[in-house]
User: Fold these one by one.
Assistant:
Number 1:
Amino acid sequence: MTTVYNSLFYSGFTEQTTQEDKTTLDKNAFLKLMITKLQNQDPLQPVDDEKMMTQMTQYSTVEQLTNINQQLSSMLKFNQFLGLSSLIGKQIEWKTDDGTINAATVTSVQTQHDQYHVLTDTGERIPAEQITVISG
C-alpha cells in the first residue's frame, strides 16, 4: 500500500508502507510529524524559520546517516561473501547438531536470506557458522 502526503513543502512525497518494527521513529515518521505540525500551526503564530531550518537540517542528516549505514551494511555482506569464497577447494570440518564432526571439501558458497552456506563435494550445505576447522 502506498500513501501520498501533500503539503506546502513536500508536494508529492510518497511513503512506502511496510511491516517493520515501529518502536523507533524513522525518517518517514519524522517527516510526517513535521508535516502535521505545519498543517496544524496557528496562522497568526507560524513556525519560526530558524527552528524549521534546524529541523530540516536534522532530517537531512538522519537521512544521509541512514544511507551510509545501508551502504556499509551492503559492503560488509559482500566482504563476508568474498571471505567465504576463499574456502573453495579447501577442506573444512563442522560439527552437526548431534555432535558428529564431519569433513569435506568446499565446492561453492551460497547466500540466502542473509545467511551464508558452503556447499561441499559430498553434496552437503553447511551454515558458515558451523565450520570449526579449515585446512589447505
Note: The longest strand covers residues 101-112.
Number 2:
Amino acid sequence: MGKNVVMFPMNDEVLQNKLFEGIKMHALDSKNLTFLHVFKEVRYPYIIPPYIYPTEKEREGIKETVENLMRSMVEAKFGSASNCDFICLFGENPKEEAANFLKQKSFNSVICATKEKGNLEKIFISSFTEYMVKHSPSDVLVLR
C-alpha cells in the first residue's frame, strides 16, 4: 500500500469501526491519510424559483462541520490527526464526485468499509463501494 491513502468514513458506527480497525491492521497511521466525504446535493427544479440544497451560503458551514466531525473521530481513535487531511465535497451523485476527485489527485490506495447484506443482497457489496472498485484509478481495499 502506497504512501497516500484516501478513506471514506461512513455514517454507520459499525463501518466506522471497521475502517479504524483497518487503519491499525494495515499500519496506516504512518501514511498520509485523506478522509473524504461527499455531501449529496439535491436540486428542486419544480419549485419557483428553482432551489438547490445546500445553498452556497450553507455549504461552508456544512463543510466545516463535516471536516471537524471527521477530525474529531480520528483524534478520538488515535489521539492525533497530524498526518490526515479532511475534505468535504458536494455533488448530485456522491459516487461520481468521489471517483472524479480520485482521478484528479494521486492516491496510491482507496479504502472503503462495507457490511454484509441479507439474503440475495449478500452477493453484492454496497453500491458506493462497488462503484469505487469499478471506477477508482487506484487500488481499492474493501473492509468487510
Note: The chain has a mean pLDDT of 85.
